[in-house]
Amino acid sequence: MDPKDPVSPASGIHRRSSHARAANRYTLAPSERVIPHHRRSRIIDQRLAIVTGASRGIGRSIASRLAADGLHVVAVARSAEPLGTLVEEITAAGGSAEFRTCDVGEGNALGDLVEEVAETSGRLDVLVNNAGITRDGLILRMSDEDFDQVIAVNLRSIFSACRAAARPMMRGRYGRIVNIGSVSGIAGNAGQVNYATAKAGLIGMTKSVAKELGAKGVTANVVAPGFVRTDMTEALASGREDEMAKMITVRRLGEPEDISGAVSYLASEQAGYVTGQVLVVDGGLVI
Ligand code: NAP
Questions:
Q1: Is residue 6 one of the residues assigned to a domain?
Q2: Distance of CA 161 to the CA centre of its chain
Q3: Has 265 been annotated as catalytic?
């Protein structure tokens, strides 16, 4: 097993069989073909998606869904083990995926990763910025560190990723950027000044990116979930699910698949006329 071999299991990259690939391969219009790059070291003939925060929760569901849609998925998070399991599951289901570990809150780490993946693969079609954290507390007690850390992970990393994605997407004249926001960024939320600030900022960032890149075939949108059952919300929801469901118009908490379905659409070719939008997926929590 050679870790330097891009298709060795040790490299974290798993490919589908040529049969499965042929069945789901996208046909690119001439204007969408990716220009060969002198530093490209492997050929990816499927659309390629980077999904952050893919080790669990909503991001994991998005990665599985995009792989099922026929994209090659680069799954990103800090923990290698759950990412490895995800890649195995995708591959077993006939999909194609690899993983990279990265702390997106560390400086330009995510931007560097995006740049490197685009260079070595010769393409970048979809970027889903989903990794996120909470450090909740009322403003009177919120430390500078808790504010800065949430901004670094939930907002600044997305700036560095979008900046790195802009060039390869513009070069390929195709791109779908989907940023995961929150209804907290629209309505605000007591105890989440840091989180709501980051998620509100993400809307302005996404609309601006949409305006800058739209003429090159690149769209940028936000999916804003309401209350979704994941590790992030476990402590809040535990034992209070019925009470919380009563506040939601469709009378249930969201599941990660509710969000990945929306992302699948915005990441698809048919969503090319939708850009700069915020798609709220909250079961009617905020109407
Ligand atoms: P989760 O279950 O806590 O998962 C968070 C994911 O982000 C994990 O894969 C985690 O992986 C990754 N992550 C966290 N910090 C990271 C870092 N510094 N670098 C790289 N990866 C990091 O959260 P979730 O509920 O699925 O939330 C996903 C997104 O949806 C977030 O942006 C969140 O704000 C948003 N959202 C969630 C809800 C909800 O109700 N759940 C509602 C609105 C919006 P590692 O720990 O392995 O790094």
A1: no
A2: 10
A3: no
How would you classify the pairing of strands 96-101 and 13-14?
antiparallel
How far apart (Å, rounded) are the C-alpha atoms in residues 210 and 217?
Answer: 10
In a domain, 168, yes or no: yes
196 lines ligand 1 (CB under 6 A): no
**Active site residue: 26, 195, 265, 273, which one?**
195
In a domain, 4, yes or no: no
- Beta-strand ranges (E) seen in the chain are 13-14, 48-52, 72-77, 96-101, 126-129, 175-180, 218-225, 278-281
- The enclosing domain of 93 has a CATH number of 3.40.50.720
pTM (two decimals): 0.89
Q: How many domains does the chain have?
A: 1
**What string of pLDDT tens digits covers the 287 residues of the chain?**
333 333 333 334 444 433 333 333 333 333 333 334 444 456 578 999 999 999 999 999 999 999 999 999 999 999 999 999 999 999 999 999 999 999 999 999 999 999 999 999 999 999 999 999 999 999 999 999 999 999 999 999 999 999 999 999 999 999 999 999 999 999 999 999 999 999 999 999 999 999 999 999 999 999 999 999 999 998 888 889 899 999 999 999 999 999 999 999 999 999 999 999 999 999 999 99
Q: 132 C-alpha to center of ligand 1: Å?
A: 4
Tell me the residue range of the domain where 158 lies. 25-281
